[in-house]
Amino acid sequence: MKKIVVGITGASGSIYGLRLIEELLHAEMQVTVLVTDAGRQVLGFETGLNLAEDVQECHQQLMQYFGATDNLNYYALNDFFAPTASGSNPAEAVVICPCSMGTVGRIAAGLSDNLLERAADVALKEGKKLLLVPRETPFNQIHLENLLRLSKVGAHILPAMPGFYQQPETVADLINFVVGKILDSLDVEHQLFKRWGTDK
């Protein structure tokens, strides 16, 4: 069972993170969820899912929301005793979805002020997958330089830019396209969108 960390930050587009977690759990991955304070606020505003600040209560909320069992973990951002904080127990991949430009900047600077930033740093130093899903527009030069810096050291930059060649009919179709591209990068099979040149 693959271990995947999914981080949700304060960028708009928290529904992408929720949908990704749902699909990873469906694919029987071991998922660790990390949510920043700003991510919790935006998540509540955009989706109505108001996560408790208490760690145990929040974990139970997520378990209930996703109908998960023992394959979903949740840790506070100040818990550096969590398994994902150490290179001796790295996840196969860390996905930050959506990823704020503040988070991008701190990771690019090598900072690890919280567990999510530390997990990203561990992924880079251990040669594991780090996928960043920025949802910002327009980018300024600082944003672009930070993203390029991370790309040069092995991070995969996958902006939340849905394609339209699949002729989406709903917002869910647009969300599924982006989440499907993330799953492709993680080598996780899915049926979230019709592939170019195929009937499926």
Automatic annotation (TrEMBL):
Alphabetical UniProt keywords: Flavoprotein, FMN, Prenyltransferase, Transferase
Domain Flavoprotein: 2-186
InterPro entries named among the record's database cross-references: Flavin_trans-like, Flavoprotein, UbiX-like
Binding locations of dimethylallyl phosphate: 165, 181
Matches recorded under Pfam families: Flavoprotein (PF02441)
Reactions it catalyzes: dimethylallyl phosphate + FMNH2 = prenylated FMNH2 + phosphate
GO molecular function: carboxy-lyase activity; flavin prenyltransferase activity
Entries under SUPFAM superfamilies matching the protein: Homo-oligomeric flavin-containing Cys decarboxylases, HFCD
Record family assignment: Belongs to the UbiX/PAD1 family.
Function of the molecule: Flavin prenyltransferase that catalyzes the synthesis of the prenylated FMN cofactor (prenyl-FMN) for 4-hydroxy-3-polyprenylbenzoic acid decarboxylase UbiD. The prenyltransferase is metal-independent and links a dimethylallyl moiety from dimethylallyl monophosphate (DMAP) to the flavin N5 and C6 atoms of FMN.
Protein known as: Flavin prenyltransferase UbiX
Organism of this sequence: Desulfuromusa kysingii
